[in-house]
Amino acid sequence: MKVLHLIHGTAVGGVETAAAHLQATLRGSARPVATEAPEEQKAEEIDYRVAALEASPPEDAALEADVVGSGVNSPRSAVRILALIRRHRPDVLVTSLWRSMALGYLARLVGWRGTWAIWVHNSRFTNPVDRLVHRWTLPRADLILCDSIAAREELVDPMLCDLGAETPTVLVRPDAPALLSGPRERPVAEEPLHLVSWGRIAPQKRLDRALDLLAELDARRPAGARLTLVGPDGGSLGALREEITARGLTDRVRIFGTMDREGLAEVVATSDVFVLTSAFEGYGMSAHEALAAGFVSVLSPVGDLAADTHDGRDTLHFCGDAVRAVDRLLALEADPAAWSALARRAREVRTTSMTGDFVRACRSARTSAPDRSRVAA
Question: N or C terminus: fewer CB in 10 A for the chain?
């Protein structure tokens, strides 16, 4: 079965990390993937390829796409990708994010007749065009994959209901890739408490709240606190740097761009607490990575993190009150046994099997998709 996954770019992010994981487990291995499909389908090999509208420099990339265009807004990119679809003739085309979704519909217009799956990775729309594309394409696809319960319940289900559409919807949550190292076993009282967060530096991440936590901790803890941020600029890095300077936190915050897994491991090994203070999330990839590594984490209970974590048991939920959050974090630090117990329970937060779920969904959609020889107008 030939599967072509169309994404916007290759820079580190949740979509790109998921594609990289599928590459590692499917592409090039030429081995069957265990599913609960009939025996004759179990032996079918998966030819998984990735096409990106643009490529990032190797040092900033989460993966290497098989085919890349010249830009996310470039007509030449669109033409190249459409030509690839007609030439490669994938059995299943998976489109992630709104520009890719628009190309999925255009592929139907130019004669491709395979199975089209839209993979939804957000629980909110990023702009009016994003909303419009979703509204047009979701009823016209053969299958909708949701990477989080939040994406399905807060975005997909309401839109399909409003449109009176019945496109099949399947939950395919990402796997959190294993980190190459874990955090320090427990904080050292005579040293600063090291906070860390990784992922795209974007407005919805509300990193100003992370600065609130840092400032409160630094003022109240004798040895102070430090914050390390790792990730590409998603539109708010400039404003964040200005706020750091205005609040006098320049010597307490380190900001790195995209790092490979080895570089991130070095940062993780010297860190104590993971923080994610987002206004909204879908799956929350970086948070799930941190939990699996055994971090004591301060997290906004948004997206799937609200269902996957339990306040006070495996994480500390953060609802905007930095003073209360620091009260709880300092109390936890003062009790080494409680700190270790929470970190141990964090490792037990449920995980998923994305590759198996993805393959099962693609196979099922391929065999049950309706005849779409005519594209809906």
Answer: C
